[in-house]
Amino acid sequence: TIGYHLGTAFQIQDDVLESVSNEEEMGKSLSDARNDKSTYVKLMGLEASKIEIDEHFRKIDSLLNELSIDATEFNKIIERIKDRKK
């Protein structure tokens, strides 16, 4: 379940980054817009996409808190993904 939420948040985040960045900032071709692909941003809008990303990360935090493990390293990875710019 955590993997589902992390993967979904990552993909929506990628769609958001592609919609607000240029190729130089992203470090890759922005083929989704050029190829008129259906992206989360195109379907739901930019603000709704950002809200959805936050919701997935909140669910991840909640699920991790339910586990009786030391999630310190995993939380570091999640924070890097949350803060990514490309």
Topology readout:
Elements: H1 2-20, H2 23-26, H3 31-34, H4 40-44, H5 46-66, H6 72-82
Helix pairs in contact: 1-5
Explain how this protein is built.
The protein is mainly α. The chain has helices at about 1-20, 25, 30-35, 40-45, 45-65, 70-80. Helix 1 (about 1-20) packs antiparallel against helix 5 (about 45-65).
Question: What are the key terms here?
Answer:
86 residues; mainly alpha; 6 helices; 74% helix
Count of alpha/pi helices: 6
> How many β-strands, per DSSP?
0
Unreliable spans are none
The overall pLDDT, averaged over residues, is 87
Overall radius of gyration: 14 Å
Summarize the structure.
The protein has 86 residues and is an all-alpha fold.
